[in-house]
Amino acid sequence: MSDIRDTIRQKYAEAITNKRSCCGGSSSCCGGGTDDPITKGIYDGAVLDRIPEGVVSQSFGCGSPVEMAGLKAGETVLDLGSGAGLDAFLAGGEVGPSGKVFGLDMTDEMILTAEANRVHWGLKNVEFLKGFIEDIPLPDGSVDVVVSNCVINLSPDKEAVFREIFRVLKPGGRISVSDVVFLRPIPEDIRTSIDAWAGCVAGALGKDEYAEKLKKAGFTEIKVSPTKIYAFTPEQLEDMFPDLPGAANLDASGVAAGAWIFASRPN
Ligand SMILES: C[S@@+](CC[C@H](N)C(=O)[O-])C[C@H]1O[C@@H](n2cnc3c(N)ncnc32)[C@H](O)[C@@H]1O
To answer: What is the phi-psi region of residue 89: left when phi exceeds 0, alpha when psi lies from -120 to 50, beta otherwise?
Structure first.
């Protein structure tokens, strides 16, 4: 687990420090940059208008989970893998001064960037925490809504993540998550490629598997809805799987999708 975490941390530290697209190859991570097939076009214009200038180019997400969360004034929100803070800032605007948003991330460079953005934009109801999504540093039953954008697929221990989300949610609380899922099985050599793992691909769950794991953790009202089905070009495939012979010829269209995941913790 620590090998995968170290690789992922290093990739995202480099990505945010160099502010570059990092889909594949030696710089592989999930999304980033305006031409990235995963990140491109995930926020609509009205949402972009509410985001501080410059923060959009620091996004590595695969959906817009805050838009789908139905946040209300006064709610407490936790953003898992908050990166440079974009979704946490959006959530902060929705819950208002009587609400609170925690952003949690394990990468120092991400926390520093997010905190600098927060200070720059004078946002008082958002706080960034350093830690692991498999061991959330918040008390039981303290959060109304958990959001997350393209992070859970990166975890080598998803059962722990779902168990922790369930623990920190209040009874009746909900999750609104954007994540990569598989729509059909992938070859084992892709699953075992650490570069592909860091690129939000190898670690992704199947659509039904995602729902099953949430159910096992105790969640109800589970929905896993694909929102953007990916069609990778041969060049993108080569870049994503640098160690895989013949990667450019993989039959990868329609294999993976960005999905919106909703579930609630029963009362
Ligand atoms: C794909 S980026 C997404 C960042 C942000 N959600 C966004 O949409 O821009 C993944 C983020 O999750 C963080 N991360 C990955 N695995 C993590 C873990 N196990 N615990 C905490 N943070 C993690 C990384 O440091 C990185 O900032």
So the answer is: alpha
